[in-house]
Amino acid sequence: MSLLIQDPAVTEQAAEQLQEEKTLSFLELILNGGIAGTIVIAILFVLLIVAVYIYFERTFAIKSASKTDKNFMNQIKDNVMNGNIEAAKIRCAQEDSPVARLTAKGISRIGSPLEDINTAIENAGKLEVYKLEKNVSILATIAGAGPMIGFLGTVIGMVLAFHELATSSGQAEMGSLAEGIYIAMTTTVAGLIVGIVAYIGYNHLVVKTDKVVHQMEATAVDFLDLLNEPA
């Protein structure tokens, strides 16, 4: 009886070749996913680019809106108390921020009833909030639609895989069937990635926007208290 002795180097080389055969890059998954899978991945890629662009564009815009001189309200208070309304308006024009524009709106209504001034400031505040939240709703939509589009791609891939199984009278190779299934699952992975990125970005922008809104509210209260101070 003879014993079969295998060379360890040959065995290791065969194992490496088998590992290389099982390895599949993400790009290959996209290209091998069929027309439907490729289209879904392309749509998700575009949504990801849009989400990233909106996030950074809004982040820089909100950061710029939150910058205000700490002595701004003190300077406005001194000018208003001294009756120098024009100087207060000029100071507001020099400060490019929602807080300055709200204050300028209130200054322009000095002499009107306090209720009218408050209403004018509230309306100006709504407009500033609308500017801050520009396109943020698109980010929320992408956060919800991304996983759904990815799941749609998976369902389409599963339907095609089982259709192939049905048309082959149950004689389809399990390897080919399994390959079609895990290729289809890549769209779900891509959709979840897009959804997670957009969801995190959306919530971060909401938090930063709320901080600016609270800053505007505090400024509006300070300005109204200034008008209520006795002469």
UniProtKB/TrEMBL annotation:
**All residue ranges annotated as the MotA/TolQ/ExbB proton channel domain in the record:** 95-217
Q: Where in the cell is it found?
A: Cell membrane; Membrane
> Biological process GO terms, please?
protein import
Q: Which residues cross the membrane?
A: 29-56, 136-161, 181-202
Query: Origin, by domain of life?
Result: Bacteria
**Which keywords has UniProt assigned to this entry?**
Cell membrane, Membrane, Protein transport, Transmembrane, Transmembrane helix, Transport
Membrane topology, from the record? Multi-pass membrane protein
Q: Which GO terms describe its cellular component?
A: plasma membrane
What InterPro entries does UniProt report for this protein, alphabetically? ExbB/TolQ_transport, MotA_ExbB_proton_chnl
Give the protein family: Belongs to the exbB/tolQ family.
What PANTHER family does the entry give?
PROTEIN TOLQ, TOLQ-RELATED
Q: What name has this protein been given in UniProt? A: Biopolymer transport protein ExbB
Instruction: Give the source species.
Output: Mesonia hippocampi
